[in-house]
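Most newcomers find our protein records easier to grasp once they have seen one. The structure tokens are whole numbers drawn from a learned vocabulary of backbone shapes. The record below serves as our worked example for the rest of this section.
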Amino acid sequence: MPGEAVAVVGASGSGKSTLLGLLAGLDTPSSGSVQLDGADLYGLDEDGRAALRARLLGFVFQSFQLLPALNALENVMLPLELAGEADAADRAAKMLARVGLAERLRHYPKTLSGGEQQRVALARAFVTQPKLLLADEPTGNLDAATGAGVIELMFEMNAEARTTLVLVTHDEAIAGRCRRRIRLVAGRIDGEG
């Protein structure tokens, strides 16, 4: 549902990251199907899945996944440029301002703190206005205070954009902020609430 936040929780190895990979069309299921915006994800070839990902999905990873040779602005512009958007620089700059990094546009990842890198990753994830945002332990590499700020920003941006958020987390407090919670045990849903 637009604007909804769903937490996926479970012990290490329970299948949380695999579930996100399946939802994104990055991993192939052994059985079953994944419907994404009315399309059978695995009925598409790899190019079709990539096009659907580009159109519908945003990603935020624990390890930021920024390209080290690109500055903050270029990292956020990248998905827009890949989609052929003419106003990529302007949209990326506005999104970086939204996450509080208007003064850091030309800085490379190695010169940014972990919290700043994750805010660049948030800007990159939201700049394409995705319908679905997949976040895999987005605070896992951050200290508690920095992580709390990043999570607050992510929930604010999710509400503003009315994006559906699927958030993998070990943090019960973060999971408690989500409208729904899905618990995985050994690759199976063990509970939902």
